[in-house]
Amino acid sequence: MPRTFLDHIAVTALSLEAGNAFVTECLGVVPQAGGEHPRMGTHNSLLRLGDTTYLEVIAPNPAAPPPTRPRWFALDCLTPQSPPCLSAWVVRTPDIHATAAAASENLGVVESMSRGTLNWLITIPADGSIPLASGAPALIEWQAANHPAANLEDKGLSLAALEIIHPDPDRLTRLVSSLQLEAPVSVVPTASAATTRLIAHINTPQGMRVLSAPHAIP
Predict the structure, then answer these.
(1) How far apart are CA 218 and CA 211, in angstroms?
(2) Per DSSP, which regions of 38-156 are E strands?
């Protein structure tokens, strides 16, 4: 089994403008423009968190034709009342098929995706959901010599830790272990009736900031 690494974290929003405003309020830094994902009818903006790690804001693209399948990261489940939220995390692997086969949970089908000149393979459930009560990561294998984060502006951000508060921590911990993950990721138990919540602790030029759901308590 190859080792895997935390590739990026994703803020989902009904609009890119709302997602960018949320991230800017939390981190004090404005995301830079990303691009479009033609197969998913989405677009994004980005913030570098290191040489091989970044933050993505992703939303449905109103200028794109609707996709013929559910959008990824449960974006089709958003409503006008859904606030922007840190909703997903993505794990990088040099062999996505081997890692997906070794995972203790079904993370979805390996599909090819693109944004501009970038190409990659990623796991996506057929219904567009985030597996394991929205706590499981997607797997990604970049088809490029250099990681795309290296081409982003360096605004002095770095990811210190990612916490996943989950109603079934043992199951999620088994999944993380099966991925051979090397990353500052921890699983935290919560009440069985509670929903999953992701909390990212990010170093910024203004000090440590927390990114999660709106107004989340660190």
Answers:
(1) 9
(2) 42-50, 53-60, 85-92, 109-115, 118-124, 138-142
Tokens of 138: 């997607």
Residue whose structure tokens are 């951000």 = 157
Task: Report d(CA 208, CA 115) in Å as an integer.
Answer: 31
CB 210 within 8 A of CB 204: no
Structure tokens at 163: 């916490």
Euclidean distance between CA atoms 25 and 215, whole angstroms: 11
The DSSP element (H or E) to which 95 belongs, if any, is none
Quote the radius of gyration of the chain (alpha carbons, Å).
16
CA distances from residue 153 to 24, 30, 31, 49, 157 in whole angstroms, order as listed: 15, 11, 10, 10, 10
Mean pLDDT of the chain: 94
Beta bridge partners of 118: 115
Q: What is the pTM of this model?
A: 0.95
**CA atoms of 136 and 174, how far apart (whole Å):** 11
Residue 135 exposed, middle or buried by CB count within 10 Å (0-12, 13-18, 19+)? buried
Q: Could you read off the pLDDT of 157-209 as tens digits, one per residue?
A: 999 999 999 999 999 999 999 999 999 999 999 866 678 999 999 999 999 99
SS3 90: strand
Nearest CA-CA partner of 104 in 180, 195, 30, 40: 180
Question: Which of 98, 145, 81 minimizes the C-alpha distance to 4?
Answer: 98
Q: What are phi and psi of 183, to 5 degrees?
A: -165, 155
